[in-house]
From TrEMBL:
Residues 19-43 are annotated as: Disordered. It comes from Chryseobacterium soli. Residues 34-43 have a biased composition (Basic and acidic residues). This is Lipoprotein.
Length: 309
């Protein structure tokens, strides 16, 4: 059977016959969140984890932030990929080719290792991963013929995303296929977090107020570069604004605060996918009447607890 791979890089469809065909479009991403279920609604009838859909094998895509995945295609089901997104940065980094202790650390042929389905599958502990299926139904596909069953999405094609949660598939978003962002792992992470945090309620009263902290990052010809972080925390919301010198202003705006183990985990909640991460962007803890933050600045300060004003 022809091995068909759907790698969602701005609607890129790849046919796995040693050649790749890329069609990319960049546009503003509009996600349609799933609607709450009613008694008359059913989840998608496809069990994307069924072993019969794994016949093409697991592989590691050649992405900046790689992850295990497999794909399936036929004219009845359509096309889908099943992505395994690590629940921590450490697990995600295991699949990075530059990780000296990771999956590729003992091979001199990473391209071959990236296609070794058995080896990849044995290294996946499902409890350590969020499992996301991206499905392009048959009604959105034009089959162009040929020995390989080549196809392309229709102009109005929409891809639906599902999260495997509580032993069932939950729809977590829908997007025009041509507008799927190139940064797949960040895009899917954003969908995952919006799903798993939607029922989470944290009372942020203990952290309420305006809190700031400044750090120097590196020397420049005109002085030390620096970043000032200004957090505004209310009972239910967190926002961040920055003042910088010789540094880029990134990842401002809305954040989600989750209280866990007597600390406030802060996740980016905006539209810049480059700011999305599976781990908290910042962590704040309270010691007596003082607040301390971790995750700011560069290498010298990033892993240190810094006193906030």
């Amino acid at each position: 059977m022809k091995k068909i791979i759907l790698i969602l890089l701005a609607a890129t469809l790849q046919s796995c016959n040693g050649q790749e065909k890329n069609k990319k479009q960049e546009a503003k991403t509009t996600i349609v969140p799933h609607k709450p279920e009613t008694s008359n609604e059913k989840e998608d009838s496809i069990n994307f984890l069924d072993i019969k859909y794994q016949s093409n094998g697991f592989f590691i895509p050649d992405n900046l932030d790689p992850y295990p995945t497999y794909s399936f295609s036929d004219k009845k089901t359509g096309v889908f990929s099943v992505d395994f997104i690590g629940k921590t940065n450490e697990i995600q980094n295991f699949w990075n080719s530059s990780n000296k202790n990771g999956y590729f650390s003992k091979t001199d042929n990473p391209e071959k290792e990236a296609q070794d389905s058995k080896a990849i599958k044995t290294r996946i502990n499902e409890k350590d991963y969020y499992i996301v299926a991206s499905h392009l139904p048959t009604q959105f596909i034009n089959y162009t013929g040929g020995e390989d069953g080549e196809f392309e999405p229709k102009e109005n094609a929409k891809t639906t995303f599902y999260l495997f949660k509580d032993n069932s598939w939950k729809q977590i978003g829908e997007i025009e296929t041509s507008k799927i962002p190139e940064n797949v792992i960040a895009f899917e992470t954003s969908l995952i977090q919006k799903e798993i945090f939607k029922t989470t309620t944290s009372n942020l009263t203990a952290y309420e107020g305006s809190h700031s902290v400044s750090v120097e990052t590196e020397a420049t010809t005109t002085g030390m570069a620096s970043i000032s972080y200004n957090f505004t925390i209310t009972k239910s919301n967190v926002s961040l604004s920055l003042n910088t010198y010789k540094e880029t202003t990134l990842c401002e705006g809305k954040y989600m605060g989750i209280e866990k183990n007597n600390q406030l985990e802060i996740y980016y909640w905006g539209e810049e996918l480059s700011c999305v991460s599976i781990n908290p962007k910042f962590i704040i803890k309270k010691d007596k009447n003082q607040l301390y933050i971790k995750g700011i600045g560069g290498e010298a300060t990033y892993n240190k607890w810094i006193l906030m004003n």
